[in-house]
Design a protein that fits this description.
223 residues; alpha/beta; 5-stranded parallel sheet; 3-stranded antiparallel sheet; globular; binds 2'-deoxycytidine-5'-monophosphate
């Protein structure tokens, strides 16, 4: 079959990257985590030791070199040659990433890069605007979500495992604020594409969600 192109979108904390990474490995696709690219820009903006203004972010995005590598089912992220895979997941980066992702010049540069990466063969890309904007011709489009309570619980367990002292209520409020910012921004807001299939993972295990994605891709391959 020709290359398989899979687009997975959905709100914060829905488990997209966990599910997408595992499904990509089983399907033999390259996984492209587009959220990591906006996080990379946010991380570099924080390194400047200045107030993070829109102007600073746009200036940084102009020259930044972001490289995603997907090897053996794991993604690494490098900014200007430095591995920042862990650093882009801190609460400080998360707090400003919606601001970064709302800026037109940043999105233009990242979307160009994402489309270039998608030319390399079979890919599974996740984000907020993949089915609607980055890869509108994807063979499979999935909108992966879960209830806000469940998403907050998952993020809570993840942050605790990393050793961060967090409050569940605070996390839920942060996620709700990020969903609002991502869904209401002017450029490429988070929205389910009309031709995307809804996958609500609130009551699913990771394995079940991965299997649901694979089943959907296999039925596409058989067409
Ligand atoms: O999925 P994530 O939490 O790593 O995404 C980080 C932020 O980037 C999130 O606030 C939404 C934004 N984003 C986006 O606007 N478009 C994408 N394709 C991917 C992420």
């Amino acid at each position: 079959m020709k290359n398989l192109v899979v687009a997975i979108d959905g709100p914060a904390g829905a488990g997209k990257s966990t599910v997408a990474q595992l499904a990509a490995k089983k399907l033999g696709c390259t996984y492209i985590d587009t959220g990591a690219m906006y996080r990379a820009v946010a991380w570099k903006a924080l390194q400047q030791g200045q107030p993070v203004t829109d102007e600073l972010i746009v200036e940084i995005a102009r020259d930044i070199q972001v490289v995603l590598r997907y090897i053996d089912g794991k993604t690494t992220v490098a900014v200007d040659g430095v591995d920042v895979t862990g650093e882009i997941r801190t609460p400080e980066v998360t707090a400003i990433v919606s601001q970064v992702a709302a800026l037109g010049p940043v999105r233009t540069k990242m979307v160009d890069l994402q489309r270039q990466m998608a030319e390399s063969g079979s890919v599974l890309m996740d984000g907020r605007d993949i089915a609607t904007s980055v890869l509108p011709d994807a063979n499979v489009k999935i909108f992966l979500t879960a209830s806000i309570e469940e998403r907050a619980r998952r993020r809570y367990r993840e942050m605790q495992a990393k050793g961060y002292a967090v409050e569940l209520e605070e996390l839920q409020a942060d996620i709700a604020a990020r969903d609002k910012a991502d869904s209401e921004r002017k450029i490429s807001p988070l929205v389910q594409a009309p031709d995307a299939e809804l996958l609500d993972t609130s009551c699913m295990s990771i394995d079940e969600a991965v299997q649901a994605v694979i089943d959907r891709c296999n039925s596409e391959k058989r067409r």
